[in-house]
Each structure stands twice: as structure tokens, then as C-alpha cells.
Design a protein that fits this description.
- The protein has 53 residues and is mainly α.
- 83% of the residues lie in helices and 0% in strands.
- It is built from 3 helices and no strands.
- Helix 1 runs antiparallel to helix 3.
């Protein structure tokens, strides 16, 4: 779901994003995915340490 949403945002706001951030949109999409996966792993580990998961 997150991949579909971020792809849709990159497609819809593509021209505006390129004006603000001079970065390839595919690289930006991959960066967003890596950050999202990192946050999910951190939260999962945090929950396991405290017994919530």
C-alpha cells in the first residue's frame, strides 16, 4: 500500500517535485521506500523489546 501511494504521489506531483528537489524521481521513490522500511524495522524492534508484539 505504501509503495502504491508513494508512486502515485511521485507521478501526480512529479513536475513540482523536480522543481523543488533536483533529484531523479525514481531515486527519490527508492529513498522514500528505504526510509519507510527502516522506520518499520525500528518500530517492530522497539515493540518486541517492550513485549507489545
Amino acid at each position: 500500500m505504501m509503495a502504491i501511494m508513494s508512486t502515485a504521489i511521485a507521478i501526480y506531483f512529479g513536475e513540482w517535485i523536480k522543481v523543488v528537489i533536483p533529484l531523479n524521481l525514481i531515486a527519490l521513490l527508492l529513498l522514500v521506500q528505504v526510509v519507510y522500511i527502516g522506520i518499520r524495522c525500528y518500530v517492530k524492534d522497539w515493540q518486541e523489546e517492550r513485549g507489545y508484539f
